[in-house]
Amino acid sequence: MAKVTDYPLYEHWYRTLNWILDRCDRMPKHTRFTVSGRIAQLSIEVAEWITEAIYTRDRRELLRAVNRNLEKLRLYFRLCKDRQYLSPGQYEYISREVNQAGVMCGGWLKASGDA
Fold first, then answer.
1. Can you count the helices (H) and strands (E) in the chain?
2. Tens digits of per-residue pLDDT, 64-115?
3. Nearest CA to 20 among 57, 70, 63?
């Protein structure tokens, strides 16, 4: 049986999740129950769904849920940039990472014959 670490999307998202949670911890405290809390929650859900997809035969809905959450994260990160919770460089970095995760997720869907 394959290990979760054998999946590039899992490894990529794990590193990205660490970065995201670090940034959420540094956001203004008044965002804890709104924007930063929601970002952290969605990001952790992505990690959970990726893990579930690794151990599931019919992963179509799980990977689609990952894609939906990635789209929501794009919205929240743009909002954070506009509200100056993230620097332009941080926004550029996380945008690339989220987009890369989306590409990897789409590739996994296609390779699984689930697209």
1. 4, 0
2. 999 999 999 999 999 999 999 999 999 999 999 999 999 999 999 998 875 5
3. 70
One-letter amino acid for residue 51 of the chain: T
DSSP H or E stretch at residue 101: helix 88-111
Annotated domain spans of the chain: 8-24+32-111
Indicate the DSSP class of residue 79. H
What CATH number labels 8-24+32-111?
A: 1.20.1440.60
Helix, coil or strand: residue 94: helix
Produce one character per residue of 47-60: b if its CB has 16 or more CB atoms within 10 Å, e if not. bebbbebbeeeebe
* pTM listed for this prediction: 0.91
Task: Check: CB of residue 51 under 8 Å from CB of residue 3.
Answer: no
The whole-angstrom separation of Cα 50 and Cα 74 is 18
